[in-house]
Amino acid sequence: MFQVSQLVSGYGQSMVLKGIDLSVDGAQIVAVMGRNGMGKTTLFKTLMGLLPAAQGSIQLDGTELAPLPSYRRVREGVAYVPQGRMIFPTLTVEENIRTGMRRRALSTPVPDEIYALFPVLFEMRRRRGGDLSGGQQQQLAIARALVTNPRVLLLDEPTEGIQPSIIKDIARSLLEIRKLRQLAIVVSEQVLSFTLEIADRLIVIDKGRFVHEDRRETANVETISRYLSV
Ligand SMILES: Nc1ncnc2c1ncn2[C@@H]1O[C@H](COP(=O)(O)OP(=O)(O)OP(=O)(O)O)[C@@H](O)[C@H]1O
């Protein structure tokens, strides 16, 4: 289980996250929804160790991660797909995927499972990352995160700037990944149709606090939409 308690963090003296509590079981998908500037990226950066936590705890199956640097958190099983994807544009698709692997020797093949999940990446494996469409780059960023064999996958606004037909592909991939790997997925989003398709729980973040939570089956779409549109 991934368990975050009373997490506080921010920039300098200004605290953006004001006490976040979150528990995610294996094989569960949780969406954190909120408008621009509400703290989604700050939350992920803090979970990943790119920003230090001022207070609070981040545990994965009982191991405390908050004092650990990012690379140690990756080893413990946390993977991150950042907003804007951040793939390496001049490396090939295969090289991009390999940057996530612990054994990067050319003789170590990219696992078949990755290309089975994302056949387009197999077709494009020798092309430069920068030549891919936004949706393909998002798939590449997810593939690169998956080769670290995470138990928790964090995705920051994966649908941003991506056309609707590809958003559906990404939703399908995430459901497939959950089924295959039984891992926990936390995804930040502003697109409600996407999270209603994939998430078991929907949580609203507002000014650095979780202010509303629904299970998907009983989600109060009106309330969530109101938070997203103000
Ligand atoms: N490097 C930084 N230094 C100071 N303040 C920052 C920094 N990055 C973000 N902030 C502030 O922290 C708050 C939360 O930003 P954050 O990026 O976490 O929001 P978000 O919900 O992810 O929105 P977006 O989708 O726009 O990224 C905002 O008020 C923002 O201005």
TrEMBL record:
SMART domains: AAA. Residues 2-230 form the ABC transporter domain. It comes from the Bacteria. Signal peptide: none annotated. NCBIfam families: urea_trans_UrtE. Belongs to the ABC transporter superfamily. This is Urea ABC transporter ATP-binding subunit UrtE.
